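Handoff note, outgoing to incoming analyst
You'll be picking up this chain. Sequence as last confirmed:
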Amino acid sequence: MLENLDFVVKRPREDVFRGLTDMEAMARFAEDPRSPMKVSVTPVPERPKTGVGSAVTIAIQGAGQSMLMETVEWDSPTRCVRTLESPDLSAKVTFDFSDAPEGTHVRVELALEAKSFLFKMMLPVLAKRLASEKLALAEKMKDGVG
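Most recent structure output, in case you need it:
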């Protein structure tokens, strides 16, 4: 499954890059109390705080497993690529940043690959939900920059 999300943030590219690629900010974003899914994000010890090799462990309450999210590409303030691995799912999230007349254009590409039978069955439902919530997600990401 491949989904893209494009939006513009009325801030300089360096600020937007820093805001959307900061692991601690990502943790706050993921741990939003309004979210129906309870998520905890923990930095991986002995890893850099930013750049290639930085990583967090993501645990979803009730899922019974955790996932490693690792930064595999870092070209500040232009591009950040992260992978997410679990026994059930592989994901790659790519953030591309470019200048726009109003500020910074952000393109987020999410590629998901289901590994387990359960996730293969759930992927079409997740794809529909992501497609229907793209605009709300873009607004939430814009709010996280700053």
